[in-house]
Amino acid sequence: MQQLSIDIKNIFQTISPEKFETVLNELTECNRLLETGYGQGRDMLGWVNLPETTTQELIDQINSTAKKINDIADVIIVIGIGGSYLGAKAMVDALGENFSYLKPDYKQIIFAGQNISEDYISELIQATQNRRTALIAVSKSGNTLEPMLTFRILREEMQHRYGVEGARKRIFVLTDESKGSLREIVWKEGYESLSVPSNVGGRYSVLTSVGLLPAAVAGINIKELIEGAKAMRVRCSSNINKLENPALIYAAARSVLYREGKQIEILACCEPYLKMLTEWWKQLFGESEGKLGKGLYPSTVTYPSDLHAIGQYIQDGPRIMIETAIKVRQSRSTIEVKSEIENLDKLNYLANKSLSHISRNIFEAVSIAHTKGGVPNISIEIQRLDAHSIGELIYFMERACGISAYGLNVNPFDQPGVDVYKKCADSLLR
Amino acid sequence: MQQLSIDIKNIFQTISPEKFETVLNELTECNRLLETGYGQGRDMLGWVNLPETTTQELIDQINSTAKKINDIADVIIVIGIGGSYLGAKAMVDALGENFSYLKPDYKQIIFAGQNISEDYISELIQATQNRRTALIAVSKSGNTLEPMLTFRILREEMQHRYGVEGARKRIFVLTDESKGSLREIVWKEGYESLSVPSNVGGRYSVLTSVGLLPAAVAGINIKELIEGAKAMRVRCSSNINKLENPALIYAAARSVLYREGKQIEILACCEPYLKMLTEWWKQLFGESEGKLGKGLYPSTVTYPSDLHAIGQYIQDGPRIMIETAIKVRQSRSTIEVKSEIENLDKLNYLANKSLSHISRNIFEAVSIAHTKGGVPNISIEIQRLDAHSIGELIYFMERACGISAYGLNVNPFDQPGVDVYKKCADSLLR
Fold first, then answer.
1. Digit-coded pLDDT (tens) for A94-134
2. Is B408 a residue whose pLDDT tops 80?
């Protein structure tokens, strides 16, 4: 099988098939709401059909802008936070050139604006002094403090380095088509810009220019990303048999376990390059569902690394967790363990086995051990770390999240809670 | 004040001072157990007095080995997992040269062995082809699969690149003084090595050569790290007034909240360079406490970034969380916001304020908002991102963890749960 698959057999140690089926039926209606637009937050459903509505013209425009950026710079600073940061970095880490920094003449994509650390920003400015630099400023509203403050500082630095005209050519902006401070700045300064659709919220925007432009700069095939998302959208349509709808199955599995009293979902990536994708997932689900005292607490780990960190807690701590593992079937390279004459490390029993084979067995063992220990677990597999598979995975997660949040009877698409500290900060700072 | 401080005032919205005092008194005895050695896991208390028992001779030896490594290599691959990885990376990230990869002639420290990803290892090998490379292999037992397998593969690569003799000069080992596969390999191959004390477990070993050697390679002042840890140890002694013992206060605060029904502790670093330190903390507490169905679930975030990810959930999700924030009083650089004529981003109200000042107010606002929202929070401040402060912070956390785990009546120093999946993996692979 070449496409994303999901396996929920290990939840049935904890949940009866009947309970699961009840929730599955209920959430089938929630999935339909995403298409009919009769649910909460219905003005923010642009992401649901985004793969279809993404035109070749837009893809060409994004690729052409990326080429312009790559021609003029070899250090590209992407300024954004939250949904204007996590998805882009997730795709660059999963699909871009890893260890690029060890190679001469490499392109380096660096993310800023997710902090306002003086050390981070000063050191970034200092380290890029003699590098051909460009900025991509990403903020749909143009209101978010950290990226806008960072943009103000780095824009000044660019003007200092290249002059006003030179800076103008090296700054690119992703923001709302017609609203917000950042759009006003674009009109005033004449920066090249692309639009972010108004009806797609930040954490659902990774398959808009917000994610696609940094991905294209990193050399990723964004057409294939969209194709993968398209293929998944078809599989998640409300006219698909519910037992074959992967997003619905995932949403139902985690929902029924939540209703059974579980409180934490641990998303484990079994491939280190997917770490940032799990961070993107954390915002997606945490910010969509964490309302009115509801929702599974989203937590992330990387396996096998974190088996040696939090594995003890997962095995023997309070039984309040579920675990969802993302696995990759096929690696890009192959390494086989070779036999050694001395065998002092006693690893010859693994000779002639590939690391993928060994990993697969370790992750199977983890599933078995955690199931035995009372941690129901879900397994999601994608074919390879390529653009198509990541596009499938992204859309799968977005769809499952919308379904699951509707199942909790919350608005999946707002985030009123973050205003509490912002208002307080505002009153302290003004 | 120049030293680490802790502020727990915000827990008293949830907990009465009397309840806190009761737990504080109880845990005072637990703190004493760490010194008398009458508690569980008493054979693994070497870390308690480690700052005192670390001789100048050892520090000189580590620095001298680091110099040797830096003379022969500019890419240093540290192979380890869990306690043989997280603490070292935590210190390198907090105190090393950030953005080094953007500078010519830089030293680059890369971590491997925390995964057995074919893509990761192949790409690492390929990217370091033309770089002067050295390996530091770290495993106290010499039994842990992922680093030992990675070491086997990378050792062969080194021999392929440099010949057997050339590889011998470029491989350094940190392992038990006399036991385990890795020590046998050292004896056979003649690699330069340093010992890891037998009575210090992996997650408590960051202030042994396990962390100190990579730190020294990164140019960190390891003498100052130890001095900071020493200073903290004095403040945490059992003869100190309990109300002035920072580790005891932290342990008691989190313990009383746990007993009150909280289930998750979110450790938030308010400085991006401390991200890996929070990951180190996750193993420290998760693996020490997650036993017999007990313990707060350890979760990590970085602020302000994750306020735009999981902030919504923290504000409005289930009230099962506590939050502990690590703040840095003084940054290494200063950036002040400048006024702009146009003010299209409307940020002139922040003109003439430093980013530190703005951050401080944001984090204060977060404290207030989260307290109001029912998330009791603890604030830990260190003076600067320097070796002394990090040494204080590390020892503070280790001490608090030992106290807290004794308070739960578990053995803080073993990890039997991780054997469950390992045995299963073993039976699948042999």
1. 999 889 888 767 889 999 999 999 999 999 999 999 999 99
2. yes
Q: How many CB atoms lie within 10 A of CB B279?
A: 26
> Which residues of chain A does B346 touch, with a Cβ-Cβ cutoff of 8 Å?
181
**What is the three-class DSSP state of B357?**
helix
Structure confidence at residue A402 (pLDDT): 98
How many angstroms from the chain centroid is the CA of residue B152?
A: 27
Identity of the residue in A86, A115, A333 whose CB atom sits nearest the CB atom of B272: A115
**Percentage of residues of chain A with pLDDT beyond 70:** 100
- CA B430 to centroid of chain Cα atoms: 34
* CA B303-B305-B309 angle, 5° bins: 110
CA gap A21, A67 in Å, rounded: 49
Q: Stretch A53-58: mean pLDDT, rounded?
A: 97
The two structure tokens encoding residue B198: 């037998």
* pLDDT, tens only, B76-123: 999 999 999 999 999 999 999 889 888 767 889 999 999 999 999 999
CB-closest option in A99, A310, A320 to B298 = A310
Residue B316 touches chain A, beta carbons under 8 Å: yes
The confidence band for A1, taking pLDDT boundaries of 50, 70 and 90, is: low
**What is the rounded CA–CA span in Å between residue A421 and residue B372?**
10
pLDDT, tens digit, 9 for 90 and up, residues B230-269: 999 999 999 999 999 999 999 999 999 999 999 999 999 9
Whether the CB of B359 is below 8 Å from some CB of chain A: the reply is yes
Token pair in block for residue A154: 């780095």
Quick check: A304 and B116 CB within 8 A? yes
Q: What is the 3-state secondary structure of chain A?
A: CCCCEEECHHHHHCCCHHHHHHHHHHHHHHHHHHHHCCCCCHHHCCCCCHHHHCCHHHHHHHHHHHHHHHHHCCEEEEECCHHHCHHHHHHHHHHCCCCHHHCCCCCEEEEECCCCCHHHHHHHHHHCCCCCEEEEEECCCCCCHHHHHHHHHHHHHHHHHHHHHHHHHCEEEEEECCCCHHHHHHHHHCCEEEEECCCCCHHHCCCCHHHHHHHHHCCCCHHHHHHHHHHHHHHCCCCCCHHHCHHHHHHHHHHHHHHCCCCEEEEEECCHHHHHHHHHHHHHHHHHHCCCCCCCEEEEEECCHHHHCCHHHHHHCCCCEEEEEEEEEECCCCCECCCCCCCCCCCHHHCCCEHHHHHHHHHHHHHHHHHHCCCCEEEEEEEECCHHHHHHHHHHHHHHHHHHHHHCCCCCCCCCCHHHHHHHHHHHHC
The overall average pLDDT reported for chain B is 97
